C-alpha cells in the first residue's frame, strides 16, 4: 500500500468511526491504518499506541461537545427554553447523523473497567453533559431536582441511542429530547 500524508485529526476521525462500529477491542492499529490509506507503521508517526489513539478519540469527541453543545447551556443571550431547544437539537444533529452510537457510551461499557485513563475521561464527558443540563434547569428546579433531571436525561439519551442503533428506528430517541424540552 502506498503511503500518503494524513493528519492526526483525520486519523482520529477514522479511528472514532471504527471504534463506534467495531468496538475498541475489535479494532486494530492495522484496521485504522487501512481505513486511513496508510501502512501500519505510519500511524506511529502520529500516535505511540492504540491506547493513545483511543484516549485522544475520547478527548476529540469531548472537545466537539464542549464547543458545539455544552456551551449553549452557558450562553447568557438565550433564555432557558431557547437553550434547551438548541441543546437538544445539537445533540440530535450529532447522534442522528453518527453511525455506531456514542463512542464514550460504547467505551464506557467496553473498556472503562480495564482502563482507568479512559474511565476518567469518559466520566468527565458525562459530567460535563450533566453540568450543562443542570445549568439550564437550575432556574426552574431546586438544586437537587435539576441535578437529578440532568442525570436522568443523559441516561435516557444514552439508552435511547443504544436502542435506536439496535432497532434502526429513531422514534423513541426523539421522544427523549422532547421530554427534556417539556421540562422548561
From TrEMBL:
Residues 28-47 bind DNA. PROSITE patterns: HTH_TETR_2. Residues 5-65 form the HTH tetR-type domain. It comes from the Bacteria. InterPro entries: Homeodomain-like_sf (IPR009057), HTH_TetR (IPR001647), Tet_transcr_reg_TetR-rel_C_sf (IPR036271), YxaF_TetR_C (IPR054156). Keywords: DNA-binding, Transcription, Transcription regulation. PANTHER family: HTH-TYPE TRANSCRIPTIONAL REGULATOR YJDC (PTHR47506:SF1), TRANSCRIPTIONAL REGULATORY PROTEIN (PTHR47506). This is TetR/AcrR family transcriptional regulator.
Amino acid at each position: 500500500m502506498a503511503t500518503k500524508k494524513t493528519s492526526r485529526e483525520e486519523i482520529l476521525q477514522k479511528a472514532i468511526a471504527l471504534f463506534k462500529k467495531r468496538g475498541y477491542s475489535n479494532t486494530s492499529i492495522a484496521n485504522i491504518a487501512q481505513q486511513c490509506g496508510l501502512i501500519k507503521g505510519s500511524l506511529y508517526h502520529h500516535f505511540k499506541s492504540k491506547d493513545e489513539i483511543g484516549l485522544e478519540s475520547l478527548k476529540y469527541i469531548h472537545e466537539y461537545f464542549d464547543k458545539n453543545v455544552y456551551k449553549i447551556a452557558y450562553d447568557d443571550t438565550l433564555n432557558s427554553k431557547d437553550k434547551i431547544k438548541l441543546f437538544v437539537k445539537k445533540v440530535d444533529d450529532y447522534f442522528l447523523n453518527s453511525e455506531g452510537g456514542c463512542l464514550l457510551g460504547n467505551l464506557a461499557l467496553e473498556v472503562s473497567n480495564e482502563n482507568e485513563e479512559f474511565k476518567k475521561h469518559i466520566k468527565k464527558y458525562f459530567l460535563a453533559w450533566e453540568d450543562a443540563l443542570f445549568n439550564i434547569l437550575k432556574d426552574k428546579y431546586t438544586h437537587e431536582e435539576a441535578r437529578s433531571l440532568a442525570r436522568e436525561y443523559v441516561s435516557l439519551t444514552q439508552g435511547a441511542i443504544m436502542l435506536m442503533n439496535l432497532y434502526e428506528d429513531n422514534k423513541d430517541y426523539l421522544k427523549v429530547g422532547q421530554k427534556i424540552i417539556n421540562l422548561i
